[in-house]
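Working notes for the structural subgroup meeting. M.R. asked for a predicted model of this chain before we commit to crystallization trials. I am recording the input and output together here so anyone reviewing the notebook later can reproduce the run.

Input as submitted:
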Amino acid sequence: MMVFALVAMLSYLIFTTLRIVVSDIDFTIGQKKGFRCRCLAEMGINVAMNPTVKKTDLDLLNMSFDDNYESFSVKIRGEGGRLNINTLLNPSNPDKELLKRLFEAWGMTEEDDRIALIDNLIDWVDPNDEHQEHGMEKDQYEKDYGITGYPFNRYFYSLDELLLVPGFDTIASLKPNWRDYLTIYSQGKLDLNEAPADLLAIVCDTTDTAAQEFVETRWGDDHNEDTKDDKRYSSVEEALALLDVGSGPLANDPEFAERTSQRLTINDGTTRIESTGTVGDFRRRIIMVVRSRQQPQILTREEIPLF
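Returned structure, recorded in token form:
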């Protein structure tokens, strides 16, 4: 019986040791693959940072190695295709009209809720402690939430800071991908050569059909993005001629078209580069926003693990 017990104990120890070794090997392999993914993503970033590389150069921006076991894929996008929340909230001239339409399109149907949220956002970025009509300043944060130090009374440094503003959690729940439509890095105006159809429909107060046709015209005859026949508009006026601007609720506003043209541009100059490195089932993504690829100024860099 002692021999059998000893054999059983040794077998258990050997099995346990084997499992530990296998686990360590898997962990080490995972680390190596993760590191390699990061290297591939960095390779894609370096390719895309070359100012001569265009977003339509798919052969350069999508490369595979080792019989497709390793690869990187890069997307180059204009950051101006997103709305700059800091520009919209400029305390000296906040664009309340556009913010109301944006939040309504995102599902915030109650006008009082939209007005309160916009006033809270303005109070967050303005440099004083004077209340907007429906906003909140330091005294109310302390009274209602027991929080000191809010609002920051400065522009947003990160989109995540928006979640600190009372009422914005409702927007986050109604529009889970809201971050894809806002930025703090663009030069301020919405780029007609980059903006998606649903955002154009909101900003230009036009139909979804007109906005989608505008975007497909921008994509060229094949109606596919990032192909050689993509078109870039040379002026705001040229682009607006193809959009039925002000055909919605603001159709009778004679000044709407002029206000809209002041919100738009055709060449923002800020670029978002998203590079994804892949090794087998492992992926890593690096997102970098730069101002001018000719003499690049890195505005932000973020690494995202993908599972």
